[in-house]
Specification:
By secondary structure, the protein is α/β, with parallel strands linked by helices. The protein has a single domain, classed as Peptidase S8/S53 domain (Rossmann fold, 3-Layer(aba) Sandwich), CATH 3.40.50. About 25% of the residues lie in helices and about 20% in strands. Strands 1, 2, 3, 4, 6, 8, 9 and 10 form an eight-stranded mixed β-sheet that branches. The protein has a two-stranded antiparallel sheet with strand order 5-7. Helix 2 packs across helix 6. It is globular, with a radius of gyration of 18 Å. The protein starts with a strand and ends in a 7-residue tail after the last strand.
Length: about 300
């Protein structure tokens, strides 16, 4: 799911902070915020890759109980199918919708993309890549801050789009300690990860010069798709859950500001100014591989 998140300065009044949004996926789950599961399937154990991914990502960004930005307005824009894939056409349609929706609102906003649209072959021309890059740059030029996950290939983040685009804030994953590594949290990593006691590069994260910043990506507690109150939770790992830490930090910074006083460059300046430097341990098992040694830190005031 691509989460388009609009932030404004107001306290939660008990009403929903999730807009209806829009879906560009033609399947049996038409709603933008549909969890990709039919009624009763949780009970029978029928699970798919995409079930609840958008809910958990949105919960990290702006959930009332676990979210970084607890007053954010969340607008789901569904371009990823239940198998986790998004084609270029759906992605471009989603960005077109986001720009129109953003123009009709008076508050600044941040886009969070937890996933990728294209795997790239470096040096090979790709018309879809060019179209995505042009649309993302148009979205940034419109004033939206654009955050994306570096993805989980344990490879160069420049090999996926939109993570490769310079104007995007690309987020890689960090991990802490040896107490982690449960079966649930390492199934997305191959080979099996090695953890040290320090703050590490998460062993599954993509890395490299296209990365801008790291954020927690291991055993991240967030809302479960079957609970409307987040009393049921689940831990997830991957850069899908690192990106909304950063997008949520941006949303908090945007709170109380206007479109006229904010822009993507100033949002990055804020993140960069407060980022922890040299907090990540560059190890043989989990090297930085050219990534900047910057770890997200959310300032309480700015």
């Amino acid at each position: 799911m691509m989460n388009f998140c609009m932030e404004q300065a107001r306290r939660d009044t008990g009403t929903t902070r999730v807009e209806a949004g829009v879906s560009f996926v033609a399947d049996t789950f038409p709603a933008a915020n549909h969890p990709c599961v039919a009624a009763g399937q949780w009970a029978t154990g029928i699970l798919q890759y995409g079930i609840g991914h958008g809910t958990s990502v949105a919960s990290v960004l702006g959930g009332r109980r676990y979210g970084v930005a607890k007053e954010v307005i969340l607008t789901p824009v569904r371009v990823f199918g239940c198998n986790g894939g998004a084609n270029s056409t759906r992605f471009l349609d989603g960005l077109d919708w986001i720009r129109v929706h953003y123009a009709s609102n008076g508050i600044p906003a941040v886009v969070n993309v937890s996933g990728y649209v294209l795997r790239l072959d470096p040096g090979v021309a790709n018309t879809d890549r060019d179209a995505i890059e042009a649309s993302v740059n148009q979205t940034i030029a419109a004033g939206l801050v654009f955050v994306a996950s570096a993805n989980n290939q344990n490879g160069d983040a420049c090999w996926t789009s939109p993570a490769h685009i310079p104007g995007v804030i690309t987020v890689a994953g960090s991990a802490l300690g040896t107490s982690f590594g449960s079966v649930w949290d390492t199934t997305w990593v191959s080979p099996d990860p090695v953890y040290n006691e320090d703050t590490n590069v998460d062993p599954g994260t993509s890395w490299g010069v296209c990365v801008d910043i790291f954020a927690p990506a291991h055993n991240i507690r967030s809302a479960h798709v079957t609970s409307a109150t987040a009393f049921r939770t689940q831990n997830h790992s991957g850069t899908s859950f690192a990106a909304p830490h950063v997008a949520g930090s941006v949303a908090r910074w945007l709170q109380g500001r206007s479109k006229s006083t904010t822009n993507p460059a100033s949002a990055w300046s804020f993140l960069n100014a407060y980022a922890g430097l040299d907090n990540l341990v560059d190890t043989v098992d989990n090297p930085l591989n050219g990534s900047p040694n910057k770890l997200i830190h959310m300032a309480t005031t700015d």
